[in-house]
Amino acid sequence: MTSVIEEPGSFRDPDNAVFYADGHVYRALSTAGAADWERLSASPSFAELIKTGRIVETSVVSPDHIPAGVPADTALTLEHELIPFVSYPYEWTFEMLRDAAALHLEILLATLDDDITMKDGYAFNVQFVGTRPVFIDVGSFEALSAGPWIGYRQFCMTFLYPLLLEAHLGVPYQRFLRGHLNGFEPSEMRQFFPGRRRFKRGVFQHVYLHSVAEQRVTKDGRKIQKDLGKAGFSKELTVAAAKKLLKLVRSLNSKRADSGWKAYRDTCSYSDADTETKARFIEAVVEESAYSQVWDLGANDGAFSKLAAKHAEYVLAVDFDDVTVDALYRSLRQDSIDNVLPLVMDLVDPSPARGWRGQERKAFTDRGAPDLVLGLALIHHLAIAANVPLPEVVDWFASLRSAVVLEFVEPHDPMAKRLLENKPAGMFPGYRKDAFEALLAGRFDVVRTEQLPGESRTLYFARPR
Fold this sequence. Notes:
The protein is of the alpha/beta class. The protein has helices at 31-41, 44-51, 94-112, 152-169, 174-179, 186-190, 203-216, 221-230, 235-251, 264-267, 272-288, 303-309, 322-334, 379-385, 390-399, 414-420, 433-443, and strands at residues 5-6, 16-21, 24-29, 58-60, 76-80, 116-118, 126-129, 132-135, 141-143, 293-297, 314-319, 340-344, 372-375, 403-409, 444-451, 457-464. The chain has 3 domains: 5-82; 106-251, no CATH class; 260-464, Vaccinia Virus protein VP39 (Rossmann fold, 3-Layer(aba) Sandwich), CATH 3.40.50.
């Protein structure tokens, strides 16, 4: 087995370190971490949480199968189920974040029954496998001690506050959360809810009082927990508080109006014949090869993501409009499609590398390697709406080093004309079909092309050189 590569984002916990080797995920535990694991793995709640897929599948690695490079002082090595694609909370929709928050609290309540609690309440401890939220940080469990849940503050900052921001104010939280990996401070969040706003559901207790308390006492969570434990804060009070918090989370809903993009398929220039031809073209491509991971970039309502999912192992459905992606998330769950991961992202400003030395959270394109990329009704938005030069657009697709299905929308197409109306006349002389085809042929081997019946859009299937 080859030497391991350490996960850059796992250095903050001295009792846990995550490693990768040969497509496997390992966790190295210290002596204290191993004791916490033994307690957790022996509990009835853990067995049920694993069985229902709420905690990542985990097993102990025998000494003769531990990969080379794991620290010599490791007391115990675990192996985890591999998450197909790592995503971050600022790429999730409102309902995804709400479901992840509810999962976190459900797990806390289950383990409290066995006198086990969590060290933190970090949103990054949850991942999605398709539309299923999964808790991945088995190293965050410890024996229950007197006092309140120490992870409450972090849960508010990374889960609850973003949800409150959108549920009560209609403000999408993704850009704010991307800007600060630790989430919203209580004092910062308080500024969003002045005056009568402080009495909106969940705000007074979890934002206003939280902020006031932090101004008067230390932020040292361990000290607060110890002091309150001495004052008689019991397990029963922790359970009651977690149940109330879970009830609040489940009650929150986003009331933002549907965006214009959610109705795109009803207003765009596709005819039924165009749609049927496009579907046949894409299905023919995905049927002929066993694609492991397909990225549908600019997925909109996910119709073609679902089509690809019938034949591919895993599909990322990426779009910048969070309302549209949230609707896709609900439809995937309703249709029991478990191999499509919906993500919110502006492809002109995709998720960058973040955290310490830019390594704790990887940039979007550094987290996976697609073997097929769908760029359908996307190029004209990049080239015209976002002013990205056409050669740059083609170079970006080529940098993904995968096969592609691309759609070129000609300037006389109604949707392209609508975008061009907002631009100075003559601004895009290079946006032409012949120019695009020359650029594509310079970076790819074009396998198949087909013009849609409306005669303003053409599909291209090409493989990288």
